[in-house]
Amino acid sequence: MFGLGWPEVAIIGIVGLLVFGPKKIPELGGALGKTLRGFKEELDRPEEIEDDNLESD
């Protein structure tokens, strides 16, 4: 996972908890999930856009 071990991931999680607080973490997780899902969908989409551009030329 990006060359990070479990101790580093735990430290990042603890710092995130201290910075954002326990109530904000689920909201941030949901937003991150939606962002990653949208990013993956857009990665699949350029093929469709490229096909449309070729047909219109």
Description of the structure:
With 57 residues, the chain is mostly helical. The protein has a domain at 23-57. Helix content is 81%, strand content 0%. The chain has 3 helices and no strands. The termini are far apart. The relative contact order is 0.07. The model has no long low-confidence stretch (mean pLDDT 82).
Keyphrases for this structure?
57 residues, mainly alpha
As residue ranges, the low-confidence spans are none
- Gap between N and C termini, in Å? 43 Å
Estimate the global geometry from the Cα principal axes: elongated
Relative strand content = under 5%
Structural class: mainly alpha
Reported for the largest beta sheet, the result is: none
The helical percent reads over 70%
